[in-house]
Known about the structure:
Layout: E1 5-9, E2 12-17, E3 23-25, H1 42-52, H2 61-68, H3 75-81, E4 91-95, H4 102-105, H5 114-122, E5 150-155, E6 158-164, H6 168-178, E7 186-187, H7 190-196, H8 199-207, E8 212-216, E9 223-227, H9 228-237, H10 242-249, H11 251-264, E10 275-279, E11 284-288, H12 315-326, H13 332-335, H14 344-358
Antiparallel strand pairs: 1-2, 1-4, 2-3, 5-6, 6-8, 7-8, 9-10, 10-11
Helix pairs in contact: 1-3, 9-10, 10-11, 11-12
Amino acid sequence: MKRFCELLLNDSPVLRIAPEGKCEILDFDHLPFGLRTEDVSFPDFYGWVSNRALSIGRTHAKEILNALRVSQTNRYEIAMACRGLSLSDAYWLRQEGDERRWEDINLFEHPLSVYISGISLSGEASGTRPQEKPSPIHTPELTTFGVSAKGWFREDDGLYLYKIGKYELPADEILSALKICHLSYQAASPLEEEKYLTGQRREWIEAVGEKVVKSKLFTTPEISMVTFEEFRTFCGYYGLDAVEQAKKIDMAYYDKMQVADYILNNNDRHEQNWGFFMDNFSGRLTGFCPLFDHDHAFSMQKDVMSQTTREYITLAEAAKTAQAQCQVDLSVLSDMEKPALLTDEQWAAVKKRGMYLLLR
């Protein structure tokens, strides 16, 4: 027999979906931004849930789904298998008859499966395989965005995302020098690598010149992230220009993002790779979240197109306009030593891009 399904924010139901698909709004002001319209339909809900699930294009996605015996083709089913739980926000799905509460199931406070996180990071299990398939599945790996190999692990001071991506480290150095707000990354220690990766996988990572890096979770049960992709959907409901609305939230931050992406020559600032913080109590946006995900930076490609402007322009053109307003101190680049993981050619290109903006 089909059952009702509720979408909740923490312990507060915000949307009810009847067995026949009719959606009843219970708390409009706390709906996800991608569903914050007066006439939510089941296709809207289905699309929002499906978009939470990992893409099959993510590194080790097949291995994760095989280990959990979850569909590889139905993203809605993938998300439903883990109650839609994510570490990006505090939304989740509860079927009729399920008596569990947020405190019973949330990913922020409860143990994560090291077995699944290990597969997510390396494609190989470093922990002990569970004897039975959990139901529902309790892992953030089914709802973590991005295509790079990565996995969530709990440490003494909180949750960390480990990923394969050496360019996060020089990007961190440069953005720190420029005083542009960003998520901090650090190299995993040999002991941490040994704890979460098999010996064979560590040897492969070293052989291809990559690094295992980690960053601390920047959301909490009280503060969620809203991607620009979801914000754009919300703006579309009301005929608003999403980029212009983003500028109104914090123009200075928006401008600094243009400068950062040009200096790093980052060709991966897609709509899930930037966004905003939402206060879960009020349901309102409070500002931009830190810049993150720079493992595709330092491309040697010329004239990379901006993905964060309304106009069809290059990163250089976007940064030139932005720098005139935000005046990032780019002179510090000339005083920096070359970050260890950049080639001489890449570092020269970084400084050349900085000089281009200084002379404009």
